[in-house]
Amino acid sequence: MRNTVPSKLRLLPAPVLCAIPAAEAATSPGLDERIEGLISPLTDWIQRVILFPTPIPGSDAQMAFVVLWLIVAALVFTFYFRFINLRGLAHGFRLIRGDYNDPKAAGEVTHFQALATALSGTVGLGNIAGVAIAVSVGGPGAVVWMILAGFLGMSSKFVECTLGVKYRSINADGSISGGPMWYLSRGLADRGAALATLGKICAVVFAIFCVGGSFGGANMFQSNQSFQQVVGVTGGAESWFAGKGWLFGLVMAFFVGLVIIGGIRSIARVTSKIVPLMGAIYVLAGLVIIGVHIDQVPAAFALMFSSAFGVSSVAGGMLGVLAIGFQRAAFSSEAGIGSAAIAHSAVQTSEPVSEGVVALYEPFVDTIVVCTITALVIIISGVYVDGGSMSGVELTSEAFETVIGWFPYVLAVAVILFAYSTMLAWSYYGLKCWTFLFGESRGAEYTYKTLFLLFVVAGASMQLGAVIGFSDAMILAMAFPNLLGIYFLLPTVRRELDRYWAKVKGGELPTWRENLRRRR
Predict the structure, then answer these.
(1) pLDDT at 436 over 70
(2) Domains identified in the chain, total number
(3) What is the model's pTM?
(4) Residue 275 in contact with residue 421, Cβ under 8 Å?
(5) What is the CA radius of gyration of the chain?
(6) Domain range holding 378?
(7) 293-297 average pLDDT score
(8) CATH number at residue 75
């Protein structure tokens, strides 16, 4: 039975949170409204350019071309590497728990820390708010396509993270610079002069989009949804925070700045603690709600599949729902985008494939596990049907509230910490791309970090629609140069994989105990 709570604790639609009387707005717009007015035209233009729709033959549905680009690549990688997304899971688990850790290998973080840092950039509001957006816009059927996209995306993560380690740059101070910028420029140069120019162009374009993505989805979207949740649980339109997104953004920016100054080691230490803790709390709460409504779970899954494949959805609707599901999954797991390869490149290992196998767990945890739990809670609660104008995190919060009346408070903390860890990870991604473009210098580093923190403040002051458009456009656009270059590097990854599996099967890959014995 639905628990009741005071109406002031209920979450309100994003437009209500910062609303002010029309007459007052016309004469003296607040700081939030002025920031919104300055940035929204730019974000709208970027969204129209990058997320241009592609008509689907035989139906009235349209799909952003970048989503189709991601689908095709994930399918190609899955078959080319003979379902590495299934074959590599067992070995990946051994790597994550530290069976093959080698502290003497080049790198800055362990396999687990690299995975935690990358997961901190994916597990979070993409799961909490993104799933709600997918269900509210595309219906329960969108969840099926999100899960499928997550499964196929595991192969994409394997490829890009393997390449990230293979072509990374080890700096004089022992720090690591890696990611698509390096494997596109260096990897394609290894394939001949004809591809060298293409590699340089792809690397620069990727870096530009990544910097834009770090300002958008990495902090604007995160601070926006964190602010919505805080306002919702503190009184909605009557909250003291209403209309003060800029103040919330300043506080968030302060705490982000405290950590990002220390670089990847500092970021890894924080995220390796925040992500497992908040992930466990969120998943446990979801399982409690599912357990309370366990009798409705079969019907919920049946509704998902009937909505995804049903006859009523075939005439254009099915492909439209597929597009929504894949787009939200791409934003959630970032498989094929190339961002996670930047974090994984910092791992301590001499075997590139080892980190590619570890990276399989990103889309698995992010999209297949966490997103499925969120979707079940939303569908079982039914709030996506009668939620009115709610969307994003407020819809998810309302769903959890149907069983756990006080959960919006817990979710507010979870949202803030998830958003915080995502900002930390993406600040590193954006910084590495920024220094790739402008050089490794303290001036370049501090310039980027200052801009990053300013966008944290801006994001908390804007409406959800503008933030989502900018976030999707910049982050998804990274897939164009990234995947184009990867196609030419597939033979390189296959050779690395064959060599690595031969070492594993032949017992040539030393465990941490053997590494310790050798050092003694």
Answers:
(1) yes
(2) 1
(3) 0.77
(4) yes
(5) 22
(6) 11-21+29-519
(7) 84
(8) 1.20.1740
